[in-house]
Amino acid sequence: MKHKNRRLLTGILTAALALSLTACSNSPDSNASSQTLNDKGQVVLKVAASPSPHAQILQSVREELLQQNIDLQIQEFTDYILPNNALDSGDVDANFFQHKPYLDDFNAKNGTNLVSVGVVHFEPLGIFSGKTASLDQLADGAEIAVPNDTTNEARALILLEKNGLITLKDGAGLQATVRDIQDNPKNLKFTELESAQLPRALPDVDLAVINGNSALEGGVYDKLIASEEVTDEAATTYANILAVRASDENRPEIQALIKALNTEKTREYIISTYQDIFVPVF
């Protein structure tokens, strides 16, 4: 009798194990299982973004995603560090605020594994007037504020070089900092600041090189005196991207979002809303 009970118990355990393995083999993939549903049964998609234009562009496609049962929840950030930290930690599912060189530099410095799933628009970097109204009026020893993150600082210095204010060392490229300035005929002084702080610093410096979205948010775009040209190379290199954690690229809701951001409707929205300030590149 004991042997019979033991055989029965063994059979039950074997069947349970087989059922468990079958259930595992038929379970949703990791992408699907990572989905969160709201109280309406819609898939929640949390995206970190700079307020302008990124959050505004996202808002323009929110209704389209709702029709696909996706609840796009936009979380606004005003700096360039927290959106990537929030993405890496899993607090958000994607972010939209940066270009690929910035993302690559962030990954290299922080050991993160964030990737682009597509480009949306290009934001020309600009030189803005502070205490000095034009490049021609720039005095000897004038002060210029530039972004302090690696790729945007290099980009700012390249723009100043193209406008004849400085010369960079050969090969400095996208890693250039103020220490790579070879010729500085006007003895210009450089102040390195976090990008979001540049518009506020503008009244205290002669000129500032500011990212387009920071200038727009800071209400200083009317002080633009020179900017990057909208060339194919610049637009491709510095196009703003939708970023996610590696392995999340094919999540259906992520793919639905990048598809919505790359439609003709979105192109028309960017052009009509921002004129030449921001340029769609898809």
Please give a quick description of this structure.
With 282 residues, the protein is of the alpha/beta class. It has helices at residues 2-25, 30-33, 51-60, 62-66, 82-89, 100-110, 150-162, 198-201, 212-217, 232-237, 252-261, 264-274; strands at residues 36-37, 43-49, 70-76, 94-99, 114-122, 126-129, 143-147, 167-168, 181-183, 189-193, 207-210, 224-227, 239-245, 279-280. A hairpin with a 5-residue loop joins strand 1 and strand 2.
Characterization of the model:
It contains twelve helices and 14 strands. It has helices at 2-25, 30-33, 51-60, 62-66, 82-89, 100-110, 150-162, 198-201, 212-217, 232-237, 252-261, 264-274, and strands spanning 36-37, 43-49, 70-76, 94-99, 114-122, 126-129, 143-147, 167-168, 181-183, 189-193, 207-210, 224-227, 239-245, 279-280. Strands 1, 2, 3, 4, 5, 13 and 14 form a seven-stranded mixed β-sheet that branches. The chain has a five-stranded mixed β-sheet with strand order 10-7-11-6-12. It folds into two domains: 30-124 and 236-280, 3-Layer(aba) Sandwich (D-Maltodextrin-Binding Protein, domain 2); 126-228, D-Maltodextrin-Binding Protein, domain 2, CATH 3.40.190. The protein is an alpha/beta fold. Residues 1-33 have low confidence and may be disordered.
